[in-house]
Every structure is written in C-alpha cells, then in structure tokens.
C-alpha cells in the first residue's frame, strides 16, 4: 500500500451529504460521453478522445495487486468482484487505476485470499488472468483503466524505479509486455510509470529520485522518457502518466548546516512537479504526456502548511507551485493519481473540499483517481466500508459533484493475449420484476421482489432498485441486501451466485417508512420491465 512521505527541510528524520448515487444507463455506444470514444490523447492541458471531445477522468484506485496477495483486495469479502465494480460505476467513477508490483507479473505468480465461493470464476487464475477479467468487465461499464507500476516487489515502495533485485530493464520489459497484452483494447488507456519516486539520503549525499539533475541513475525525468518511449514503441496510443518526485535534488535538506542554498521546496512522494516546466518529459509520440501528482492530508502526514495561519487560503498557491501551474499555463493535463484522507480530522475535510474546488467542475476540470476504493488503506480508509459493500457517504458526498459517470461500454473485449486466459462473462440480460407487499404496520412494511432473468446466464447476479427518501431497509434475505442513500442493492448470496436464463430469484425484505414498491429495478445493469 502506498505510503506518502514528506520530504521537506524538516523531514530529514522522517521514516517512511449523505450518500448521493448516480444511476447509470447502459447505452450501446462505446465509451460515449463520460470517458469518450476510442483511445485518448492530449491537447494543451486537456485530455481528448478520438473525436476531439474533452474527457475528464474521475476515477478511483483499487489496490492489492502490488501486495503479497498479488490481486485485488476485497476478493475475500462476501461482495462479488463484479458487484464492487458495479458500485464504483454507479457512484460515478469512470476510471480505475490499478496498482501492481512486478512480482505479480512473474511466471508462476499466484493470487491468494480469494473467496471462491463468491467468486468461483476466479478459481486457479493467475494474477494476470484476473486482471484480464477485471479489465474486460470494466469495459462493459464504460470505464477506463490506468495501470500503475506501484512497487518493484510486493515488499514495499522504492525511491528509485529500480532496485538491486528489479532492474530498469525488467521494469521496462514488463511495461512492454503489458502494452502488448492489451494492444487494441481501448479500455486500457495508459501507463503510470512508477509510483511515488522520492528523495533518499541527506544532501549533498542524495541517493533518491531527482528531477532535472542529469544523473541517469537518479534523474526520474530521464527515466520516465526511457520507459515512456519504450512503451510508445509498442503501443503508441497509450497515455504516459508521469508522477513527480518529493525533492527536486533527490535528497533531504540538512537543516543543521545553516546553508540556505541547500534548502529547497519539497512535497509529497510523487507530488512535486515544480521542475517539470523547466525540464519537461520528452516523448517520441506527441500528445501522450499527462503529469500525475499525488496529494494527501494530515491522516498521512501533518505537513507544515496545514498549520499556516491563513489555512486553507494558502493551499491554492502551494498546489500551483508544485503542479497546478502545468495545467494553468496550458503545458499539459493533470491527472491527480492519488489523494485521500480518513477525514477524522476537521482540517482534512476542509482540505478535501478545497482540493476538489481547485480541480474545477465539469468536463474541463483536472482529472483524478481517488485513493482508494479499499477500506483497508491504513492512512486514508476508503470509499467502501469494511464490508466492501456499503460506502462512506461523507467522502462520497464531497467527491460527487466532480464525478463524471461512465456511459455505455465496449461489451466484452479481447485482451490481445493468446494465453491470457480471459473468459467472457455473460452479458447483462433483460428481466422482469414483480413486487408483492406481504405485510404492513405503523412505520414499516414487508415485501418480496421477484426478478426473472429473461436473458443469458448471470454469475454472479445483482439486483438494484431505488426507494424515495425516508424509506430505509430493515432487513433482507435470499441475498446480501444493503442500502446507500436511496439505492438498494441485493447481491447474490454465496450459496447461490448464478442465475440461469429463464430463472427467477425472490428477494425478501422489511423496511421502515411508508409502504413503497421498489422502483427502477435493474438486474446486472439491465432495466427490468
């Protein structure tokens, strides 16, 4: 999991409202509206699609493939993997950033901690085969995927893009393999080359990632050019996402040397792009570069700027200096790859509100992928709660006005890998829904909803409906029934994940409020009559 470290002059001793849901209508066109059509490219500070329409990526991170599990966390839960992606899309996240480590790409790598009773289709699949299936399904939701080389090994992050056991050649060759694997699949739009390059060592004995220093062993800008151009040689249609460093020198300042010339402005790991204007990343294919800073709150580390007397009014100028100027001066697009907080500190809530305001509203705003979907991110928590089903409505309410929901989808797509092992899941089927009220009392009622699948077989199945404000779920049976805002989700139980064509499922429930039939009933995204 990412650890975002401060690298300021004082960090030499640092060791490393209510849930608003967006209903998504599944349209036949490929990547219409929300994430555009075809492959993406850049134009000034904008990301545009193959037709020239502006696209804003408003996504989320789902981590785990970079850890010892070598696959997505939460696959151990009772919520099927497709249902989790359904929720992300329904909430308005149009892009999925997927962290991985090179360990997960090795021949013989094995994924673990998967609840195969809930996810039987993942049984005995390799990490890459699971990735294939997730990418395929993401495409059906109209979402896009950014792959993120998060760690060289599952043991942890590294200041540089290579380590004694994972060479630069391995880093680049694995990227080329992934580019070839997903060639022709427009769901996968690009490569986040290396997660959070950062300073190491104390100046003048810096050993960490610098920007523009000219040392080929440490200059992250030059390494990003080498890797980015190698990827574009295989897949010229991908966007290349380049993060910043923490200190441009690559080392922490020695605050005890009384030499102010050695001091510099430092920021979060991966968050400092202050030298990118002077030393830009030069790629062999034009209009492919996106800068991708990280930005965090006090739940990660209490930076000095949170204590300024004019906080939060001081923050826009700080963001301008680290990375926002690239967008404001029309140099390149910004896609904020990670930002998040537990929101337990009131300072953090203000931070998130002001940061989102800074990115701008509507399609012309800066792109972002929130950290994270996972509730088990130790220093930020997630959008999902600990059951991996319900959501953190406080966070979602702040993000919601800035989300541009995915529309449409590609349908099942090939991975481009003859040995990828990807399987095409059944498409959402048409359905009918019948509701029966079985009981009522003062302040509540009981009912049953029977949904018949009139399309192809589904595994797993998931039924969603809406109630008006004031009607709340009491209990449910024959499914895992949960509510967020006015939307109710009934996920397939572990003992009956499949729903064959022509078969029905009856979901029982009690509810509080005025007796109201379920409305806008959908089965795996298809609207029921």
UniProtKB/TrEMBL annotation:
It holds the Pfam family Cellulase. The keyword Calcium does not apply. It is an enzyme of class 3 (hydrolase). Residues 1-32 form the signal peptide. Keywords: Carbohydrate metabolism, Cellulose degradation, Glycosidase, Hydrolase, Polysaccharide degradation, Signal. Its EC number is 3.2.1.4. Residues 424-529 form the CBM2 domain. InterPro entries: CBD2, CBM2/CBM3_carb-bd_dom_sf, CBM2_carb-bd_dom_sf, GH, Glyco_hydro_5, Glyco_hydro_5_CS. The keyword Signal applies. Belongs to the glycosyl hydrolase 5 (cellulase A) family. This is Endoglucanase. It comes from Phytohabitans aurantiacus. The lineage of its organism: Bacteria, Bacillati, Actinomycetota, Actinomycetes, Micromonosporales.
